[in-house]
Amino acid sequence: MLITISTPNLSTEYKQLIEATFEQSTSTYIVFVGDGVYAPALNTAFFEQLANTVKSTVESTAKDKPTLNLSFLSTDADTRGANLPEHFNPISHKELAAISAKNQHWIPLS
């Protein structure tokens, strides 16, 4: 599953959707694009809680371990001067295309 976030402000509904996706899917990618690169800074507590939830699930489950893949388009972050946490991975447009090709289900949040 690929979730692209292009808005800095995540509504309660968006947060619930992200949480539900991680509960249902073993491999979910969240990629912050455009103004979405500001979302991690504006929603720090949410993403820390999500990372801790996924980490504890991985530690307690042997099969179908969920993975948390948080990435951002490096050119968008550079252009906007956004600083993202270390556990968010910078990716290129080419890498985003590869992630897109690998995932059948996409959810754009804007």
UniProtKB/TrEMBL annotation:
SUPFAM superfamilies: DsrEFH-like
Name of protein: Uncharacterized protein
Source organism of this protein record: Alteromonas marina
